[in-house]
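User: We ran a pulldown and think these components assemble together. Before we commit to crystallization trials, I'd like a predicted model of the whole complex to look at. Sequences follow.
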Amino acid sequence: MLRISDVSKTFNPGTADAKLALDHLSLHVNKGDFISIIGANGAGKSTLFNAICGSFFTDTGTIFLDGKNITMQPEHQRARQIGRLFQDPMRGSAPDMSIEENLYLAAGKGGWLSRITGADRRAFRDWLALLGMGLENRMRAPVGLLSGGQRQALTLLMATYQTPKLLLLDEHTAALDPATAEKVLTLTRSIVEENRITCLMITHNMQSALDLGNRTLMMDRGRVIYDVSGEERSRLTIRDLTEKFRQASGRALDNDRMLLGTEDE
Amino acid sequence: MSLDKILSLVQTAVELGLVYSLTVLALFLSYSMLNVCDLSTDGCFTFGAAVGTLVALSGHPWLSIPAAMGAGMLSGLVTAVLQTRMGVQSLLAGIVVNTGLYSVNLALTGSKAQLTMTKTATVFTILKEKLSGTFLSGQYKLVVLAVIVTLVVIFLSLFLRTRLGLSIRATGCNADMVRSSSINPIFTTTVGLCVSNAFTALSGCLMAQQQKSFDISMASSGVLTVALASLLIGGVFFGTRRSIPLRAIGAVIGAILFRLVYTIALRLHMPAFMLKLVSAVIVVLTISVPYLKNRAGLLRRRYQAARERGAA
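Assistant: Here's a predicted model for the assembly, 577 residues in total across the polymer chains.
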């Protein structure tokens, strides 16, 4: 499904601030995988997502999505097949525009001069009702009036309205209060399962990294240092993960937020 | 002052307001929707006037309108290409095009700083003949302008509801979201600036034909600042939370209101050279007052905190 081979990226090359953010990273994601990704701050998790999305072009290596080489494809073209959610709920939608207008752009149907039709509105209403947040009755309200949780749920709908081949979740519940985070995570799970979307999820919550999905990656200094799935993964505990990190990277996992685990998401 | 005199002053003010309202609507698209401050506005206004005048002088009054709009689109295209494809900062791109257009305009007129159209057929003279003898004969300019402005408002209201129009609005609001909707923000910025500059040029074209003369410095009264002031005044009545058609109408009302107030100020012996300063102050006030209100609240809290610390 997604094949990343030998991808490297250095920021500020040739200066004192040069930083090797991705270090000859290779990764093969199978169709239908739900992969959780953990790692300390600056490990390159978000940089990996940026590389996959095309926010920048990589220095070396190739990226194939569903058999097609997308290494040099511009970001907006890749977006047809890749959905992405950020930690910041504000990043996914346009605040001055209404809910239905945001959804219409995300739906990406029709020509440039087409307009929202009654059929579109009915479809949006049905979709929004799935969220159980009452947004289906506020379709003409500006998105800027919604709460962070509502906006993130809306962004989730927008990212999956046309079923993407790949969904990238970059700590998308970390900025929400615990109850809302739980709700958005449940929604994510049901949408991903129902549409069998291949999904990568960055999380700081080690427990949900182990609970969700079928495979877990641990990243450090721009590389994947631990890749676990199946039988071995089902027996893992948070303690095992921190131990693995120490073994693989040669230092202790020094991130309180990760160690504290379940409470912070 | 007689009633007739007052009415004619008001009529002139409304006519000028309607001419400028096309530039205000252009800024409504580029400044309010696309979030780009297009500093090529003054140059583009004169460019539209020059092209429109030349086409009218060559005997094609109707053709002058699409010609001027086409010229505006071209100017908008250059500004857009500079800022989206060639790494020139947005503000600088506008300034550079504005400067370059001055030479282009003089090249077009054969280095004449003025062209007169006293005996030339324009869209206004054509309608004057058509309306002569009817009760509207004295208002022919008003009729031409009202029709054109109405068409532009209707066009914008419909256009901004299409997928392309929505993409342009989203580009000014959240370019990340546009990209993740598989739309290229470079494309939407380019289209937005082209359409916007077409209206600015149309505004200049009608200005020249209405005054029956072209002047290379006709935009030196600071068309951009005046139009921005009008746009912001319109926003006071029909603010950002209103629907697009209402906001577009608000922009037109703002332009007319600005001219009316200016006319009254001139009557009250404000010297004409104050126009620029007044519009500059209006722009600054409408932008800063909300900001300063915010700051004032903060300063008050800080002051109270300091007093409580002192008391404790």
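The CA atoms of residues 282 and 288 of chain B lie 10 Å apart. That may be worth checking against your pulldown data before setting up trials.

User: Thanks, that helps.
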